[in-house]
Design goal:
Oligomer: single chain
Number of strands: 4
Helix content: 25-40%
Shape: globular
Strand content: 5-15%
Strand order of the largest sheet: 1-2-3-4
Distance between the termini: 17 Å
Structural class: alpha+beta
């Protein structure tokens, strides 16, 4: 099957003005904290995933380290979620394996806190989740950026199988992209 997603590449870029504008448009608001672009579309270099600093500009904790905001990825993952993907992945991957992924994510995020930080800290794992899966987008974003996330890998497999398509409204659609996903 042809990969329905545009090719992506893992990067670690300080955002420029065009990135900040694109991210604000994709979020529908200005970001509340600092971030780096960590995954881009190959064809136009547009941001797909950002890595947030663990603290917002005002010092509040930011539990979501990796934020999937690129299109069509965001919409396609939303379709999987709306079709019961959260419960399916919990059943298929298992809560113990997911808990291990949450611990790895939290450790990475916490390591990025300023040395000696004694204020409020982000809590829990992927997207602030303590148990199970809250958001497939956060898991897939971390996986796209190179994270060891079995939920993100599950999402990638289901996207490659066409589970994120629009259904009957795309009859005759040739699909798109293909190419490098940032994973090998």
């Amino acid at each position: 099957m042809v990969d329905p997603l545009p090719g992506t590449v893992v990067v670690d870029d300080e955002p420029d003005d065009a990135d900040r504008k694109a991210v604000a448009e994709l979020l529908g608001r200005e970001p509340a904290g600092s971030f780096r672009v960590v995954v881009r579309h190959v064809h136009d270099r547009s941001p797909v995933v950002i890595r947030n600093h663990p603290l917002l500009a005002d010092g509040r904790p930011m539990p979501t380290r990796y934020w999937l905001l690129g299109e069509p990825e965001r919409t396609m993952v939303s379709r999987i979620e709306s079709r019961g993907g959260v419960h399916r992945v919990e059943d298929e991957v298992g809560l113990d394996v997911i808990a291990d992924a949450h611990a790895r994510y939290a450790a990475e995020r916490d390591a990025a806190l300023p040395e000696g930080w004694d204020g409020p800290r982000p809590s829990a794992g992927v997207g602030g989740t303590r148990v199970g899966v809250k958001c497939l987008h956060a898991h897939y974003g971390w996986w796209l950026a190179g994270g060891d996330d079995p939920v993100g890998a599950w999402v990638a497999e289901h996207l490659a199988a066409g589970d994120g398509d629009a259904g009957p409204t795309r009859v005759g659609d040739a699909g798109g992209g293909g190419g490098a996903s940032g994973h090998g």
